[in-house]
Amino acid sequence: MDNSLLTITDRRTGKNYTLPVDHGTIRATELRQIKEDAEDFGLMSYDPAFVNTASCQSGITYIDGDRGILRYRGYPIEELAEKCRFLEVSYLLLNGELPDEKQLENWIEEVKHHTMLHETSKKFLEGFRYDAHPMGMFVSTVAALSTVYPDAKNVLDPANRRHQIVRLIGKVPTIAAYTYRHSRGFPYVYPDNDLNYAANLMNMLWKMVEPKYVANPVLARALSVLFILHADHEQNCSTNAMRSVASSQADPYLSVAAAAAALSGPLHGGANEQVLLMLDFIGKKENVPGYIEQVKAGKMKLMGFGHRVYKNYDPRARIIKWTADQVFQVTGRSPKLDIALELERIALEDDYFIKRKLYPNVDFYSGIIYQAMGFKPDMFTVLFAIPRTVGWLAHWDEMMRDPEQKIARPRQVYTGQPLRHLPEAKPTLNVAVLV
Ligand code: ACO
Asked: Which residues are catalytically annotated?
């Protein structure tokens, strides 16, 4: 018996079909041979929200959601978070292998070379109201870079793609910091290339009049770890947006802006901000059981809980809890942590959450750490977008090299009106009327 074949019997026609199975999947286009008659378009699969559809083959990130496993290019996330620098992990995601010492040094230098923004970018930002959400400013400013770098349109050239990738990785922290400075009315701070990636971001956010900003090394390392954890997560909503938009050969600035827009939603990267709002709403530990009851009654959501892929503890949430301990030793313990721990304790013992396999995800604890470090909740999703830019770009480059990929264009099941006609009495418009 050949285990790599699937036999389908079409009871409508009595015909049998044999389809190859590869990596646990059948090719959806194979279904098209299954027809009721010669006129028939052929069978399609219907999968709203891509719950059971692989849209690509990818060698970047591996997730086993049932066992709570996450690996970048084969390396467990726990090992990378403990032993690597963020730009080292970025190199790994983009190139498939960890850099040696010399390669890492060159890579860091290359990224640093691109941290400045064109001066006109500040003017885009100045057009935003003082209370504009930083994520809206981030998305728009990344998109606006498309006008600054028209050479980026040459997306079929691998060397050009690499150039834009380095530019984007260098510039997203600067854009992020400028959105914050704009919303506070502070002057923009230029990048300081003496500092590492995370410390430089902290410098651009928080430097005031001191001649040299010195980031707390524990907090800078914690930020780096958070960046590593957020760098990629295979075909999530925003990466799917990146691939979908870039499949039309739109330039990478516009595609990354589209991906960041997808990230901003409260069901995706926007959840970290929502968790903080939820913890504020709950207010104190004693109110947790009442909140859980409201969630179970369908009146609220437990933000930062649940995941499409993880049906077990999100491994990133475990590392974030450990990182929180390091951060709180510097900043003092956040009282919100007690509310979060109580929510987690009750939820993990409750049938509603157990049955639905709802566990804390990456966003449940990250906001508490960010807030303790001094970030405002409206910056949390921007902080997610900085490292995820690396993942989006790794997927973009992989997609552009994949000979099987084409413009993304799903099918639909049409459920609208059948053919109908306008009333004959309706007069034909002449040109004069149109004018
Ligand atoms: N609180 C309460 N109930 C939940 C939650 C939650 N956070 N998440 C899922 N459920 C329930 C649903 O109501 C549903 O119950 P039902 O079967 O009785 O209808 C069941 O669990 C399955 O949930 P779905 O919505 O079908 O799961 P899906 O895979 O479509 O959604 C999602 C995943 C969007 C992450 C969801 O769990 C959610 O909204 N979580 C809160 C927002 C959040 O934290 N998002 C961040 C995700 S991580 C990231 O993107 C970086």
From this structure: 268, 307, 363
CB 116 within 8 A of CB 188: no
pLDDT per residue as tens digits for the range 264-300 = 999 999 999 999 999 999 999 999 999 999 999 999 9
pLDDT of 169: 98
- Rounded distance, CA 172 to CA 421, Å? 52
Q: Which residue type, as a one-letter code, is found at position 205? A: L
Segment 388-412 shows an average pLDDT of: 98
* Residue whose tokens read 């503890």: 313
Ligand 1 nearest atom to the CA of residue 230, by list position: 51
- Supply the DSSP symbol for 333: -
Nearest-CA residue for ligand 1 atom 13 is 298
Judge contact between 184 and 378, C-beta under 8 A: no
Facing residues of 22 across strands?
A: 25
In order of 161, 391, 400, the CA distances from 397 in angstroms are 7, 10, 5
Q: Nearest C-alpha to atom 28 of ligand 1 is from which residue?
A: 308
Pocket of ligand 1 (CB under 6 A): 236, 267-269, 271, 295, 301-308, 356, 358, 361-363
HEC profile of 52-70: CCCCCCCCCEEEECCCCEE
Ligand 1: distance of its center to the CA of 388 in Å? Answer: 21
**What is the average per-residue pLDDT within 257-262?**
98
Residue with tokens 């459920």: 415
**305 CA distance to ligand 1 middle (Å):** 7
Q: How many angstroms separate the alpha carbon of residue 408 from the centre of ligand 1?
A: 26
For residue range 96-117, what is the model confidence (pLDDT) as tens digits?
Answer: 999 999 999 999 999 999 999 9
Taking the complete model, does pTM exceed 0.85, yes or no?
A: yes
Over residues 347-385, the pLDDT tens digits come to 999 999 999 999 999 999 999 999 999 999 999 999 999
The alpha carbon of 236 and the centre of ligand 1 are apart by a number of angstroms equal to 14
